[in-house]
Structure formats: structure tokens, C-alpha cells
Amino acid sequence: MVVQGNKQQNSYFNKYSGRKDDNADGSKIGPNGVQAMLEDLKLDVTDRRVLILCALTNAETQCEFTYDELVGMMQENKLNTMTDLKKFLDSYNSEMDRDTDAFNKVYKFTFGYSRMLNSRNLTIEHAVQCWQALITKNYSLYPRWIDFVQNAKTRPRGITRDVWNMLPDLLSTTKTLADYDELGSWPSTFDDFIEYAREQAQ
């Protein structure tokens, strides 16, 4: 589908695209343009709403938005101005804490978007940064999970897609270490985590 924004949407995109310091033509917003846009939206790069914006535009490249990505999303959601966009991101951010589908849409997108180029897995450091932005619920095992991936001798070298995708299910269904279903079809990394957490609890 060909994206053709209205005057307000085009004006918003053009405000940040084609900057000389990005060496970019007018077809995309480069890193400096993205930074300026986030500053105008009053969003820090670690804010969950930045990942929401990337997910809902289905951005392919980190720190860039093409015309079709940004204006297409604004068209789809009937957003014309920066104020519209900010309200929309605020609303979706709140919805993520109530609606599993809304959360999963952003959460699962983040894995592929955040990986280093040509890498199958997320680094531990980057994964933790993303979890800290995305996971806002007070899951009882979440602090122990972060301790495990950062400090355990059996910690994974990187986070696979399976581990990434299944972590919210683990945290929501396993309230205590005793609740863990060792016969369940969990990745082996979770077995290592539970064993480590039980040893630490002794």
C-alpha cells in the first residue's frame, strides 16, 4: 500500500528528515533527527514509549524511521501532530500494563529490533536494558532473574529468541521457586535459573 500523508503528517515528518548531520535525503529520519524528535516528545531513549513507537511503526533499522513507517503509523491511528502522537504513546503505554496482547506486540518486536546486526541473540547487557524498560509489573522472580543472567556461573552467553519470548510467561506463572514446573517445556536456561535461585535462597 502506498502511504500518502496529509499536510500535517508530512510537515511533522519533514521537520526531522533529510538533516545534513545525518547525511540523509528526505526519505527517512536519521539518528540526529530521531534524537530531536524524542527531545520534542520529551522522551528519554530508555523510555518504554520509544520502543512502543518503534514497534508500532514496525521500524526496520535502529535510530531511523522511513516515511512509510512513521507517516503510515500516524495515518493508521489518525494522528496529525506531535501532541496527537504523544497522547497516543502515553495511552498505549498504559494499555500495555492491562492488556497482554498490547504488551506482547511491543515485547516480541523488541528482540529482533534490538539485536546487533547479523547476531542471532541479544547480549546480556542489552537484554537487561530492554527488560528494565519493558517489564513494569512486580514479578516476584524478576530480580532473581536479573541477578542470574548477570552474575551466575551458569548464566547464558546471550539471550535466545525462545528465552526472550517465554520469560513473561515464566514470570507470570511462577510466583515462587516451588511453583516451577520442571517437566514443562521451558528452555534449559530456565532450569539453570531455578537451580541457581534455589541455591541462593538456602
TrEMBL record:
Stored PANTHER family: DCN1-LIKE PROTEIN, RP42 RELATED
Organism for this UniProt entry: Steinernema carpocapsae (Entomopathogenic nematode)
Annotated Polar residues bias: 1-14
Residues covered by region (Disordered): 1-29
Record's protein name: Defective in cullin neddylation protein
Chain's role: Neddylation of cullins play an essential role in the regulation of SCF-type complexes activity.
Origin: domain of life: Eukaryota
GO biological process entries: positive regulation of protein neddylation; protein neddylation
Cited InterPro entries: DCN-prot (IPR014764), DCN1-like_PONY (IPR042460), PONY_dom (IPR005176)
One of the record's GO cellular component terms: ubiquitin ligase complex
Residue ranges of domain DCUN1 in the record: 4-198
A GO molecular-function annotation: ubiquitin conjugating enzyme binding
